[in-house]
Fold this protein.
Amino acid sequence: MNALRLSKKLFSRSLLCHTSSRTLTTISLSSLLSPSPSLSSPAFHRPSPAANGNVGSSLLRSPWSAIQNRGVKVNAINVRPGNVIEKTGRVYQVIGSEHRQRGRGGAMIQMELRDVDTGNKVSLRFGTEEPVERVFVEEKSFTCLYTENDTAFLIEPDTYEQLQVSLDIFGKSATYLKEEMKVRLQLFDGRPLSGSVPKHVTCTIKETQPSMKAVSITPRYKKAVLDNGLTVQIPSYLETGEEVIINTEDNSFVGRSNK
């Protein structure tokens, strides 16, 4: 009887050791297959290559997301009005760019520039393939509250930050500014450089010649004065008080408003 009890105890201990061994082996393999680095481990802080790739690709897709990026070299022939460049330590906004031929001397680019710090205008010449350092600026959306004299009062829709800017930064498009219009500003170091209005704007015909239905042949277009004071060409069938859509880039008639 005692021999039977002794054999049962030995069998139980053997089974327990075998189970513990299997458990420890499983835990050891799991830890090897699924490593969990500590917070102090360099692997924990090291960004993955995929993450770095995503950052780079997003920057290329949206260059305006990089604020005041310097050191981007472009050929002078690729510089456009509105771009910001750096030359001999000064930052300029490009007002105009003209391609000129110098006979046997080759082609050149004549640029009209405005100094961002002083506001002074200068004219510089560049070779068509001459490298120019372009500076990317921040572009933000604002809502026009109202205009008064030579100033536009804007508000940033997300932060409710209010900003006063000169109408000059909108150029000829400043004529179209009105309440609740969405506009975009380009800023450098927080200072507005230029502004733009939507490409298509709805205006009201304030004054125009009445349609001459009795005449068999009538002019296809006629002059009209809009509610912003601008004179444009509109189809002869339109009347005073109607709303029309105007292209702000060339002041051309686009169509009758559906409102």
Summary: Residues 2-33 form the longest helix (32 residues).
